[in-house]
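Query structure, 173 tokens:
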């Protein structure tokens, strides 16, 4: 039991350090707590990682305020995703390669099924996750891999032609 508490404490400390370093990239003090909240909720075992369930898990007593804060930090706050990826890479890559050397670079596309059609990039297209054509978004990623684990270092949303040629639609999404 004591070993489990020590491991949990160690994990909590590592997460706190990780979040603190990510927060340094937030660019403004007002973004630190929302960025940390959003990052924490991504680690939770929630089936649907949409705003409502995420807000309910983070702040059950204050869902409405959390519901407003989460989309703002992701979609509207002016922080650099490139700088964030660098900060993450600086922390994760040394841990990833501590026991095993890098063995591969992996380029992959990932489909994210979507119920609606208004989110940027959503259209009816092949979704590997579903194994058929369906409404989804596609992202292309570059990951570094060892024998034991992999880590995404670059990530880009694929923009289908229907979105790429329609500036009004992109701005609304």
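Result returned for the query:
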């Amino acid at each position: 039991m004591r070993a489990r508490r020590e491991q949990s404490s160690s994990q909590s400390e590592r997460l706190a350090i990780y979040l603190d370093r990510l927060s340094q990239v937030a660019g403004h003090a007002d973004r630190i707590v929302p960025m940390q909240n959003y990052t924490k909720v991504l680690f939770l075992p929630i089936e649907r990682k949409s705003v409502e369930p995420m807000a309910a898990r983070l702040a059950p007593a204050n869902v409405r305020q959390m519901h407003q804060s989460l989309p703002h930090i992701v979609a509207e706050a002016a922080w650099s995703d490139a700088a964030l990826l660098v900060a993450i890479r600086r922390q994760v890559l040394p841990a990833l390669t501590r026991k095993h050397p890098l063995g591969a670079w992996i380029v992959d596309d990932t489909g994210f099924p979507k119920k609606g059609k208004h989110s940027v990039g959503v259209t009816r297209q092949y979704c590997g996750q579903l194994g058929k054509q369906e409404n989804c978004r596609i992202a292309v990623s570059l990951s570094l891999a060892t024998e034991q684990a992999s880590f995404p270092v670059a990530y880009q949303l694929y923009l289908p032609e229907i979105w790429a040629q329609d500036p009004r639609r992109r701005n609304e999404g």
